[in-house]
Amino acid sequence: MVVAGLCRLLARRGVKVAPFKAQNMSNNSAVTVEGGEIGRAQAVQARAAGLEPSVRFNPILLKPGSDRSSQLVVRGRVAATVRAADYLTHRDRLAAVVNDELASLRTEFDAVICEGAGSPAEINLRATDLANMGLARAGGLPVVLVGDIDRGGLLAHLFGTVAILDPADQALIAGFLVNKFRGDATLLEPGLRQLAALTDRPSYGVLPYAQELWLDTEDSVSVLAGRVVGIPQPPVGSQSLRVGAIRLPRISNSTDIEALAAEPGVQVRWIDDAADAVGLDLLVLPGSKSTVADLDWLRARGLAEAIEAHARRGGVTLGICGGFQMLCRRIEDPVESGRAAVPGLGLLDAEIEFVAEKTLALHREPLSGYEIHHGRLGTSAAADWAGIGLCAPGRPVYGTHWHGVLDNNAFRRGWLTEVAAAAGRDGFVVAEDTDVPARRDAQLDRMADLLEEHADVTALLALLDGPPPVRATVSTGLRR
User: Fold this and answer.
1) What burial letters (b/e) apply to 38-59, b meaning 16+ CB within 10 Å?
2) Calpha distance 386→367 (Å, rounded)
3) Contact indicator for 60, 22 with CB cutoff of 8 Å
4) Is residue 176 over pLDDT 50?
5) What ranges make up the beta strands (E) of 159-281?
6) Cβ neighbours, 10 Å, residue 79
7) Together in a domain, 201 and 225
8) Does residue 320 form part of some domain?
9) What value does the mean pLDDT take over residues 279-301?
10) Is the same domain home to 161 and 259?
């Protein structure tokens, strides 16, 4: 969000700016203008900069399929499936890709704002690091450490991060930025002064916690952090819609759910227990990086039976991408799970076959949306749904491979009206003025405003001129 805010701030000032993240690890991805895929965060940052999403902004993407392996996406295309222990063998080749792409962007744009990944203090991973100090050293980039004070222990984290780095890495650390502060910032000032004295590095500002910044979550970590999606708003009519979205272990593109939560009177919660599926008006199965494995998880948790019971009661069901595939009669998957003829939930009369070549599609007209999936629709007797998917004749079960379709305001409003009618919520009224794309833009402007108001923007932008001045080396006093 800080990178997105800086991109929007600079774009508002007429600066030609681009975002960059050398390597992202996320199952929340987006399709680019070249027909590739990048991390969702870089697509949002590109929007902040007034640009279309491009594979140039995130040349390496890791999409975890399990705790030990990830799909490796290079310049938008699947290159391999890699294990963490084997990643060192790819490092030199990937470093060349990253450095070439960044060098190209720097010749084309006035400013490139690079987002790190995790923490630069993960010294056990320094040899393979491409996104933090490895990138900074290769490009001679000044580095600002952004600390999330909402997690606690911030001053120790900032000091310890600098101290544990090698002197050559430390030399590129320009200073600190505090994020998500609650309360009176003057109480933090003595600590920041002491931090400056200990590290010989300044703090560039203290950004306050802003509750409204919740759209476009980076990955499943934020999904796992809480149950309520968004900020519930009172209904326009006399009734609300109760929505449950299943929190799959390998969930992907969870941002689809956020468009529903943006609507007044639509109460959205993440659920992972069969008991939570009772009494819902709408049940959503989101995308998954490992469809068959997550389908097994649904059955083991009793959620498969709960989904089927919900449909039998006449409740509305929506499956998106992997969730859509789970709703079908059968799945043939020699690609992700290596299993054939896996029975689906059978709520849609269709079959899915996984193929090695991933479908990557960006749709603009008449509806906007995008597709990222290995599964392809085979034989089907289900009915067409709005040209974007399938529906079950005679009952409200819907499925689509399209992500982002609920961002289409008119489509979302019309479909929610159908959902309310099917659920018997005659008192639910769809708001006429909810504009999800505009809300996304408003949040980017809000982040830029927070930086303008609470950070030393002049000092931050001065870093665009080159590496920070050489500062004293910081030591913990521990032997390495």
Assistant:
1) bbbbbbbbbbbbebebbbbbbb
2) 10
3) yes
4) yes
5) 173-181, 203-208, 241-246, 251-252, 266-271
6) 16
7) no
8) yes
9) 96
10) no
Rounded to whole angstroms, what are the CA distances from 104 to 28, 57, 60? 26, 11, 16
Amino acid residing at 467: P
- Please check whether residue 471 lies inside any domain of the structure: no
Q: Are strands 143-148 and 241-246 parallel, antiparallel or unpaired?
A: unpaired
Q: Give residue 287's domain range.
A: 220-436
Residues 373 and 405 both lie in one domain: yes
- pLDDT interval class at 477 (50, 70, 90): low
Separation between Cα atoms, residue 306 and residue 311, nearest integer Å: 9
Does 478 reside within a domain?
A: no
CA angle 41, 121, 196 (to 5 degrees): 100
Report the CATH number that the domain containing residue 40 is assigned in CATH: 3.40.50.300
Same domain, 154 and 255: no
Look-up: residue for tokens 């379709």? Answer: 405
| Region 425-446 average pLDDT | 95
State phi, psi for 218 to the nearest 5 degrees: -70, -45
For residues 106-115, give the mean pLDDT.
Answer: 97
Q: With contact defined as beta carbons under 8 Å apart, do 163 and 130 qualify?
A: no
Same domain, 272 and 289: yes
Query: Structurally, how many domains does the chain consist of?
Result: 2
Based on the fold, state whether residues 408 and 329 are members of the same structural domain: yes
Packed helices 303-312 and 291-300: angle between N→C axes, nearest 10 degrees: 80
Candidates 373, 397, 377; CA nearest to 385 is: 397
CB 138, CB 23: distance < 8 Å: no
Whether residue 360 is found in the same domain as residue 458? no
Q: Which one has a higher pLDDT value, 82 or 204?
A: 204
Q: Which of 35, 82, 41 is nearest to 63 (CA)?
A: 82
CATH number at residue 339: 3.40.50.880
Cα 240 from Cα 218, distance rounded (Å): 28
- Residues labelled as active-site residues: 321, 403
| Other residues' Cβ atoms within 10 Å of the Cβ of residue 14 | 8
Which 3 state secondary structure label does DSSP give 122? coil
Q: What are phi and psi of 251, to 5 degrees?
A: -60, 145
**pLDDT band, residue 462 (cuts 50/70/90):** very high
Contact 310, 347 (CB under 8 A): no
Structure confidence at residue 471 as a pLDDT band (50, 70, 90) = confident
Peptide bond into 249 cis (omega under 30): no
Q: Answer yes or no: do 324 and 394 share one domain.
A: yes
